[in-house]
Amino acid sequence: MLRVLGVLVLVALYISFIIDVLRTPRLEARTLPKLLWLALVVLIPIIGGILWFFLGRPRPTNGGVFRRRGPMAPDDDPKFLKGLDEEAWRRRMRERRGEV
After folding, report:
1. What CA–CA distance (Å, rounded) separates 18 from 25?
2. In 10 A of CB 44, how many CB atoms?
3. Residue 67 falls inside a structural domain
4. 26 in any annotated domain
5. Domain span including residue 91
6. What is the pLDDT of residues 11-69, one digit of tens each?
7. Does the residue 64 lie in any domain?
8. Number of domains the chain is built from
9. What pLDDT is attached to residue 70?
């Protein structure tokens, strides 16, 4: 049973390394071209993946944290929050004009 668990962990690592190489933009791969990294990870499963992790993977650019590539949630977007504040201010101004 323990052997099966070990094999499953290695297969999961192998798949995650392949996905990581595929999701990395072509120009951000370090040391070697992305296609060569993919071949290395596929042909030399675990060792290629470890090499990718330490030598080929892009370095974080903003203080050690990878930047988010997708859209932000509305409550995290400063422009959206500013728009909400401005709209609330306009609504209060309209209400004041109606009361005065």
Report:
1. 13
2. 12
3. no
4. yes
5. 2-59+73-99
6. 999 999 999 999 999 888 888 999 999 999 999 988 999 999 899 988 776 655 555 56
7. no
8. 1
9. 64
